[in-house]
Each structure stands twice: as structure tokens, then as C-alpha cells.
Amino acid sequence: MTHTISRLYDDHEAARAAVRALEDAGVGHGDISILASNADNWYSPDRDVDTYPDRDLDGRDDRAEAAGAGAGIGATVGGAAGLLTGLGVMAIPGVGPVVAAGWLVATLAGAAAGGATGGVIGALTQAGVGKDEADIYAEGLRRGGAVVSARVPDADAPRLQAVMDRAAVNITERSAAYRSGGWKSFDPRATPYTADQIRRERELYTGR
Prior knowledge:
The protein contains 9 helices and 5 strands; from the N terminus they run E-H-E-H-H-E-E-H-H-H-E-H-H-H. It is an alpha+beta fold.
């Protein structure tokens, strides 16, 4: 039996560090997915022209990963690359531009196509996030955050939850912070945050 673990991070760098930590802990990159706000334009679909292909956004050259892990991973990388090249950065209602990689891509693509019906909340709940937490995760994405989801064996879940928790947002504290500012729940009709708003939002939590 498998268990899906999801965590919210304040930015794509923290999320990508979590992806690397999961891989180092033995989770195959095919079982890891990442959704990250691109409102501040940190990711360009053409950036690998000058650096290296990194379609799973884990900070490593996909070609080296494929060579080191064998044909199974190589096939996964090849299939994912084509899919992600076609999707690029998706605009999600209420969230804005989002970069997605991994097995959650198809679900998020459906959310993008579905507009306000289902939307990012539907994608997150399908990934195993509870409805109440999905509201916070979606709002976190809107405010420049990132979500990492991993499918892991039930027996390994406690150990890997600890790995993901290292730099993850404390959902209870973040919910309280949002609500203290008048926020009630994620609204897919809301205006996405600008790059300046995201910068100011991140400054609120720097060093916490």
C-alpha cells in the first residue's frame, strides 16, 4: 500500500530542496511531484537551452539521472520531458502562473482546463490533501509558494514525512496568519499576486 504526503513551502527553492532530500532518502523521482508559483518568473521553459534539461525541477541534469538510474528512469524522464514541454507554465484561476512537474501534472492540467470548477483545490485533494488544508495550500501557491507531493510505501511514511517537514510551512500557524489578515478561504476568482506582492509576502516569514 502507498501513502501520499504533501507539504507546502514558501518558495520553489525550498520545495526543490525537499525533492532532492526525498530522492536522497530513496524515493524515485517518478513518485514525486511539484507545483510552484511562477508569478516572479523564476522559471522559463527555454532556460534549459543554456543550462541543462531539468523537467522534474529537482536541480539535477535529467540526462545524468537517466544514465545513473538505468532504463526505467530514463524512460520516465523521456516521457515526462515531452509532456512538460507541451504544458510549460500554466495559468491557474486564482493562483496565476504555475510550473508543474511529476505525476501531478495531468491532474493540474485538468484543473487549468476546468477553470473555477474543481480547479487547484480539486488537484490538491486528488493528491491526498484534505479539503481544509487544500485551501491553505492553494492560497500559499497564490502567494508565491510551492507544493511537493510524494507517493511512498505506508511503512516509510513516518520517516519521509520527517524529511518533508524540515523546511515545510507550519499549516496551523500559516492559517492563523492568513486569517488574522481577513482571509477566509481560497477564492479561484481572486486576483493572483504580483511579483512585488509575493516578495513582500515572503519577507513576512523570512527567518521564522
